[in-house]
Amino acid sequence: MAAALFQTLAVLLALTLYAVIVGRAVLHYLHMLQLNSYRNERYLRWLNEDLLKRIGPVSLLPLVALLFYWNSGLFFGIWIGGFLLLSLKRPKVPVKKPLVVTGRVKRLMTAIFLIWVGASLPTFFLGSTGLSSIPYFSLFLMLGLLLLLLPWLLVVANLLAVPVESAIARWYIGDAGKIINDMPGLQVVGITGSYGKTSTKFILNELLLSKYNALMTPGSFNTLLGVTRIIREKLKPIHDLFLVEMGAKQPGDIREICELVHPRYGLITTIGKQHLEMFKSLANIVKTKSELVESLPSDGIAFLNADDESFAEVRGRTQARVVSFGVDSPGADYAAREIKYLANGLTALTLSLPNGETLLLETRLLGKNNIYNIVSAVAVAMELGVPENRIKATVRSLQPAPHRLNVKKSAAGITIVDDAFSSNPMGARAALDVLREIEGNRKVLITPGMVELGETEAEENRLLGAYAASRCDYVILVGIEQAKPIYEGLVSEGYPENQIYIAAHLNEANDHFAKISREGDVVLYENDLPDTYN
After folding, report:
1. Domains along the chain?
2. Which DSSP string do the residues of 294-308 spell out, in sequence order?
3. For 104-119, how does the pLDDT look when each residue is reduced to its tens digit (9 = 90+)?
4. Tens of pLDDT, residues 18-60
């Protein structure tokens, strides 16, 4: 009797701990799938990059315990003790983009639960009825296999959900299309580009609010379904202008958004080597970003960066009127020149206008990339009739978008330059220039480098390290593997190795900086990789 009671209690405790661990694992893999846009091929690429690390000891523990099933005490000791130890020693890794529990996530969780129940119940009954020669062995074997196969079971569940998710998405998109079609007076401005589209959107929104009742897609809501959600939840008949940020992970993404919102105005901030991992070539990026201007009507306006190498090609892809802007191209319709960094922390510039006149602007925003954002936004605002006096006042009052070259002082007297939202070759160099120019003592860089640059990623990160060598007094790199090319670039320029520290993750980087920092130091946070790269 005592032995049977022990086994029953042990089974219940083992199953309870197992359920806790499986729940955490399901949430983890769902998070990774969500960060990879629910695309199985991208999720599997992440999984296969370091398979043993991805599945971890948690997934292998049940099968190890089963090797000792002949000794119930030893088996339950390994199973229960192992899961208990792993749950208590769970590492606290910083999360940039937490899992968003959407309807799709809930449906996938339900599918995984049904797979688990469907596979486990028969083996449970087999063990509990005594029909199995080794009680509950088949149950624990099945549970071990399910946990080991969980990453791939999620792919299966995602595939099975495709018809349902597609039907739901089509209904949402159709409903959003009806809302747009019922607002014939609505003017839509589409914004895309490899860099700067979110910051430019925020700036343009501020400029337009003095004349229009405008709505913009918030944050980085720049996918078809993200835009669809904003239309259904936020767009009202009182709005007369809609700013739509348009992102792309593959060709056709921007065209789909344009077919939904029908933009009359299109702004391409700049086109560069961003997301080369997905697009494979710069030519594919140019073609995809051009989908915005190709969709514009003949009475629309395409705002294009005259400094881009692809300017002429993109210009030839639209039937709309083209308005150019730039910093290095004096012949642009809207051209920034005489850029000065003033002692009061402001940046001053002279903007030449299409009519030959000039507009003097001052801004709190830092860096050349922000000059591009301002000039492009001002070009759109002026073409849409916003008065010059309102433009000057708004540009001077602009605050940086979150995590895009924000500058603040800590209680310890350290100047923090926060450019952690994302990183690209042009923006990273601009941020390092700001670090060099800003007033302060030691200049410290904390960065994991750049991602999604395809075959050029390692080389671009080496170049980033070489560029940083002349602009930093101390460098903290984040990510043991990710940081290697940046380290090589630093060393190639003769940068002292004792002024480089490599941290496993951001928490460790912050802890190390806290130990070495002194009052008056300036630290630049350049990029903060999403969890898929940690």
Report:
1. 2-165 (no CATH), 183-331+367-386 (3.40.1190.10), 406-533 (3.90.190.20)
2. HTS-TTSEEEEETTS
3. 899 999 999 998 888 8
4. 888 888 889 989 998 888 878 888 888 888 877 777 777 777 8
